[in-house]
C-alpha cells in the first residue's frame, strides 16, 4: 500500500539547529510526491515529504500483532540525513513492524519516528495478520543426560599421547632439558 509521509518543520530552540523536523502523519493511498507543502501555521510548515510502499510480510506477523496490541498502533518512519540544505531528511522506509524499526535504531545512523496509524491502515494490517499469522508453540529444550565431567577438555589433543605433565609451562620444560 502506498503511504505518504508528512514531515513537520518547526523553528529550532537553539542557535545550532535552525529547524526541528518530526514525522507528524501518514497519508494512505498517497500519490508519488516529493516535498510538497501541505500546510503552513506561522513558522511551522508541514510537507508531504515522500511516498513509500508499505509492505507486509507473512514471516513478520508476530511483530505486526505486537504493534497492533499497543495502546496506540503506529507505523515507523525511518529517515536519514541528506545532503540537501532545504530538506535535510531523506525518508528511507515506512514499516508497521516495531522489531524492524528497532533494528534501524541500533546503528545510530538513521532517525526512526513513531506515527499513529490511521484507522484504515489499522484494519488493513489486522486483516493481514488474521489471514497469515500462525501461532508458534513453545517447546522447552530438555537437558541432555550425558555426564560432562568425565572428559577433560582443553589439555591437548586426545590423539597424541603425552607422557609428561600437560599443565607444565614451556619455560619449565626448557629448564629440564638443560639439566
Description:
With 179 residues, the chain is of the alpha+beta class. The protein contains 4 helices and 7 strands, in the order ββββαββαβαα. The protein has a 4-stranded antiparallel β-sheet, with no helix packed on it. Helix 1 packs across helix 3. The chain starts with a strand and ends with a helix. The model has no long low-confidence stretch (mean pLDDT 86).
Q: Could you give the order of the helices and strands?
A: EEEEHEEHEHH
Structural class: alpha+beta
* Unreliable spans: none
Head-to-tail CA distance between termini = 83 Å
Summarize the amount of helix as a percent range: 10-25%
Q: Biggest sheet: strands, sense, closure?
A: 4 strands, antiparallel
Q: Based on CA inertia axes, which overall geometry fits?
A: elongated
Give the helix tally: 4
Order of strands in the sheet with most strands: 2-1-4-3
Query: How many runs of DSSP E, i.e. beta strands?
Result: 7
Strand content: 25-35%
Question: How would you summarize this macromolecular structure in one to three sentences?
Answer:
The chain has 179 residues and is an alpha+beta fold. The protein has helices at residues 61-68, 98-107, 119-132, 170-178, and strands spanning 2-11, 19-28, 36-41, 44-53, 74-81, 89-95, 111-116.
What are its keywords?
23% helix; three-stranded antiparallel beta sheet; four-stranded antiparallel beta sheet; elongated
How does the SSE layout of this entry go?
Blueprint: E1 2-11, E2 19-28, E3 36-41, E4 44-53, H1 61-68, E5 74-81, E6 89-95, H2 98-107, E7 111-116, H3 119-132, H4 170-178
